[in-house]
Amino acid sequence: MDFSGWRVLREGLRGHTGWAPLWRAATPKKHYDVLIVGGGGHGLATAYYLAKYHGLTNIAVLEKNWVGGGNVGRNTTIIRSNYLLDGNQPFYELSLRLWEGIEQELNFNAMVSQRGVLNLFHSDAQRDAFRRRGNAMRMHGTDAEWLNAKAVRQMAPFLNYDNARFPIHGGLLQRRGGTVRHDAVAWGYARAASALGVDIIERCEVQGFDVTNGQVQAVETSRGRIEADRIGVAVAGYSSEVMRHANVRLPIESHVLQAFVTEGLKPLIPGVITYGAGHFYISQSDKGGLVFGGDLDGYNSYASRGNLPVVEDVCEGGMSIMPMLGRARLLRSWGGVVDMSMDGSPIIDRTQVGGLYFNGGWCYGGFKATPASGWVFAHLLARESSHPTASAYRFDRFAAGAMIDEKGQGSTPNLH
User: Fold this and answer.
1) In percent, how much of the chain has pLDDT > 90?
2) pLDDT mean across residues, the chain
3) Which DSSP symbol is given to 27?
4) Looking at the DSSP assignment, which residues form a beta bridge with residue 219?
5) Which residues contact 120 (CB under 8 A, 6 or more apart)?
């Protein structure tokens, strides 16, 4: 079932009676060539690219709950590639390039909106750091623009310029950054993968791994035993819980990251704006709600509720940079369980268990990495070697001291 403007018009005239489910409700088979544990954006993207570009069709995606019910639907929808370090910048630029073509690739409206990402700075030290970041981006072929205070005021006149405790001195702008509708990403990948023969199995919880002589043979699930030649795990904040069934310990902690949305307002914010004097970032959804977030809750948890001190901290940051935010009514907040690695960068690698592969440690960057994560994880599963763009994301970097510490906080996941 292809989507097009003509199809929407025709179905409207027919009372929308011709639409079919986006993907098949598959029943588990006894054996698969590749099994993906985790039906979020990363797992579904991996399955799609495996089927589309590596010629594998005997694939299944196992999801404990429902497609799109995890972190892929619990984020602030931002996409960008404004990273500094060599291990990260090429990877996230690959992801942004894939985002730019994803709607044509999947024949699905993911609502990709490249409205720009503006990082504000408020001190000489931040100015120098952002100049360095912008230069690194441009050296990797990524767009980056330097804005002075006057240019920022022209772009966002509603910010606090005259009475701010931390005056705005300028900003680093990536115009190709923006937002994407998170639910649509999961639905689009699920639909496209299913059309290529991938079995998407919901309500199927992995409860154990059958490992014999150091080689994984199968998974034990709530819907029975499923055998596979290769198994890839991409379950975000629950990485440690799933991998412990195979006796694999991870350099990862699970933390809660909250996000918020206000009532619908008239178009106001031109893109994504981040506050340099506090951990606060904001954009406006297609429905008009202001979507914003801040830092981690600061303690290990698998609950997705969040806590009130973080609500207070985020709202203080928002009021500091945008006082008029205090007039908006907060509709709801939500939390996602994120897998924080020891250096704040992801891990995509094979494990010490033969046939078992891992994709996790995404920290704050999981949603924006979705296409590239699926692309390189599919490469690893199909060819059993790291994709060149993800070669720095192996486990052995921790033993070798080659951490990719983008934030410069060291081995403190709660600070990343």
Assistant:
1) 91
2) 95
3) P
4) 209, 226
5) 152, 159, 168, 170, 171, 273, 274, 275, 276, 321
Beta-carbon neighbour count of residue 214 at 10 Å?
Answer: 10
Phi-psi region of 191 (alpha: psi -120 to 50; beta: other; left: phi over 0): alpha
CA angle 38, 61, 33 (to 5 degrees): 125
Q: Which string of b and e fits 378-401 if b means at least 16 CB within 10 Å?
A: bbbbbeeebbebbbbbbbebeeee
The pLDDT of residue 226? 98
Instruction: Give Dmax (Cα) for the chain.
Output: 68
| CA dihedral sign of residues 225, 231, 235, 240 | positive
pLDDT grade for 412, boundaries at 50, 70 and 90:
confident
The helix (H) or strand (E) run that includes residue 340 is: strand 330-341
pLDDT over 90 at 317, yes or no = yes
User: Rounded to whole angstroms, how far apart are CA atoms 176 and 342?
Assistant: 29
Beta-carbon contacts of residue 407 (< 8 Å; ≥ 6 apart): 344, 415, 416
230 vs 232: CA distance, rounded Å: 7
- Does position 102 have pLDDT exceeding 90, yes or no? yes
- The encoded tokens of residue 102 equal 């994803």
